[in-house]
Design goal:
The protein has 118 residues and is an all-alpha fold. It is built from five helices and no strands. It is elongated. The chain starts with a helix and ends in a 6-residue tail after the last helix. 20% of the residues are buried.
Length: 118
Amino acid sequence: MKRISHLALLLALIAPLLLVLGGCGEDAPDTTAKKDPHVHLNEIDFMINDYEKAATHFVKTVKKFKAGDVSLTMRYIDEGKGVQDWQAKLQQAGARMTPEETQRAAAISAKVTPDLPK
């Protein structure tokens, strides 16, 4: 039940940002920052990169844990809390995010939220 409420809360907070920052009818977003290593990333980009790394580690741990490796129980819980901490940090920074950053953070959250510990 808590998992559903966490997901609902996350979606409720991110959905308005996507609508406001979505930019209906605008030209395609500039993806130069992702392709050109010489383009400087801002603080939010670094936060999302770190969140993505934490999420990737967590997903790998979840797969092993669900496959029956109970030795990963504490790691699963700790990494899950770490992912939740990153979600909270990004939620606080939401007002400063570009539409692309918001979408990227939401996509990462969609991957990990169903597997977060209760």
